Amino acid sequence: MTNIQDNKKEVVITGFGGQGIVLAGTILGKAAALGDHRESTLVQSYGPESRGGACSAQVVISDTIIFYPYIKTPDVLVCMSQGGYDKYIGDLPDDGILIIDHDLVKAKRKVKEFYSISATRIAEELGRKMMANIIMIGFVTAVTKIISMDAAQDTVVKSVPKGTEEMNLKAFNRGSDYGLSVLKGREKKAEGRTGAVS
To answer: What domains lie within the chain, and their CATH numbers?
Structure first.
């Protein structure tokens, strides 16, 4: 079953400077445009100071020409800081998708689709806290399917500093594997509720 709205998705990724929020948005937009051959736009904004200040990336992905790149009501809100969550949660419609970094954001509002991953903690386990954004992009790719896995992986490899490709790809895969396992868990739960026998 295809939703007519599926041909256009608006995503806001938010956090603080130094987390690689704009790079995450760039990867999402480039993967859509270069890998999946769709239209995409990226608008970025920073708070008064870049490192530690609020920052966001607004990405619009569509099958048709995008006339307006600014987002008023995102389909997907990805929050990697409490300040970003507090600033943008009011814009997310009830049927929107909320994705948070579990250790950095306390979600206070219920939405229809909610996902969380400890992206920063996983990055620390992998030895590079700076890769939390790549883990998050892997997770977002898996749970939303806004971009294809192949396009996302390819764009990650082409977007990160030389010499870190393998490490970042591993981080992306950790995020996407976790996302796929979350989806599988939800499917099983739903089957259990409807009395399906596996």
So the answer is: 7-193 (3.40.920.10)
